[in-house]
Every structure is written in C-alpha cells, then in structure tokens.
Write a structure and sequence with these properties.
It contains five helices and eight strands. It is of the alpha+beta class and about 220 residues long. The longest helix is centred in the last third of the chain and has 62 residues.
C-alpha cells in the first residue's frame, strides 16, 4: 500500500516521500507509530503543493547555486545528541534533520534528497556533499556531539569507534555461539530420539512374536 512518510525511516524513505510498503508493515509499524499517513489523493496533492513552494527557494541558476555553495562551505552545523559511552547515538541524524537545520539556522533551502549522506548513528565530524545544481556541489560540515559536551578529538573518536566495533564483533560472536550451541543440542536430541526408536523396535518385534506363539493352536496328537 502507498503511504506518505512523516519522518525519515531507515530502509524505507525520507520524510514527505510517497512510498509503497507491505500492508502489514504499514498497519503494524508505520501508522501506529505516527511515522506515516495513508497516501490519499488529497494528501498527495497537498504534498505536491508544498514541494513546489519549497522548490521556489532553491537555486535556479548556476550563479545562484555557486552563491549558496559559498555560504554552505563556510558553515559547520552542530547536532547535540544523546550518546552512549562508545559514541553510539540514542537516535540518529537524518538527511531531513540536516535540511531542516540548514533552513532554520541559515534560511538555506536544500532538498534533503540532494544531501549525499547516510543516516548518522555515531558522534563525530562528517562532510556531506550537497548537489545544488548541475556541476555545482558544496561540502557541508557536520559536528555530531554528545549532548552537553564538546566533541572528542579525532584520536578519541577513532578509539571510541574501535571499541564499538569490537563490542559489536563480540556480541555477534556470542550470538553465533548461542546459535551453534542450540543447534548442537537439537541435533543431540534428535540423535537420542532416533536411537531410542531403534532400540524400541526389537522389543516390539519380540512382543509380536510372543503373541504369535501364544495364539498357535495346541497339537491334538491326532
């Protein structure tokens, strides 16, 4: 079914996009969480109207694009985020967050789809290419910092990232170990059941033989 996303959703799309998703995913996840609305004709028309209004603020010539690029490349947008001890964010910074901040802070309107970035999930410094016009690309600097703290130095960021990678690898190894252990236990249980079944077969055969003997008529001696 078609829905209009009200927020960026990893692996699905960006806010304001009309996307086709599985009905169960929409009914059980997107709609109850307020992440999307059903794409009715009226809502789609309203969305197209808003997109047209936003487009009026975007560069319409190469000179305008170059002027916007100069402004963007002088900026560093800071995002203060709740983060864990290894630098992983409790949340994320999405293309829509960046486009919204550009407009709020600098009144620079950029289509979020022109930001060449993935969703950011760790503290750090990032450089995001921004496609402004044909052959005009600016580089926007982002600083994603732990809330209420200064952004760590590059060496510390690298150490945090290494620690997070090691923790993730250890977790993956533990999950794999648990799966292997469960598979071994299941295999052992199946083997034990098979052995028990094989051992039970001779007993059943003996019981049948005894019944057959018992049912044989006695010789009358005639």
């Amino acid at each position: 079914m078609e829905v209009i996303l009200k927020a960026d959703v990893d692996g699905t799309g960006l806010r304001g996009e009309v996307v086709n998703v599985a009905r169960g995913f929409a009914r059980n996840y997107l709609l109850p969480r307020g992440l999307a609305d059903v794409a009715t004709p009226a809502l789609v028309k309203e969305l197209q109207k808003r997109d047209a209004q936003r487009a009026q603020h975007e560069a319409k010539s190469i000179d305008e694009a170059r002027a916007i690029a100069d402004r963007i490349e002088k900026l560093e947008l800071r995002f203060d985020m709740n983060a864990g001890p290894t630098g992983s964010l409790f949340g994320s910074v999405t293309p829509t967050n960046v486009a919204d901040r550009l407009w709020e802070a600098e009144k620079v309107r950029i289509d979020r789809r022109k930001l060449q970035m993935q969703t950011i999930k760790r503290v750090g410094r990032y450089t995001v290419p921004v496609d402004l016009f044909q052959d005009v690309t600016a580089e926007l600097k982002l600083a994603v910092a732990p809330e209420g703290q200064e952004l760590p130095a590059e060496e510390e960021l690298a150490a945090l990232e290494q620690a997070a990678a090691e923790a993730a690898a250890a977790e993956a190894a533990e999950v794999e170990r648990q799966h292997a252990e469960a598979a071994a236990l299941e295999a052992a249980a199946l083997e034990a059941a098979a052995i028990e079944e094989v051992e039970a077969e001779p007993e059943a055969d003996e019981g049948v033989a005894e019944e057959a003997v018992a049912e044989e008529p006695e010789d009358s001696g005639a």
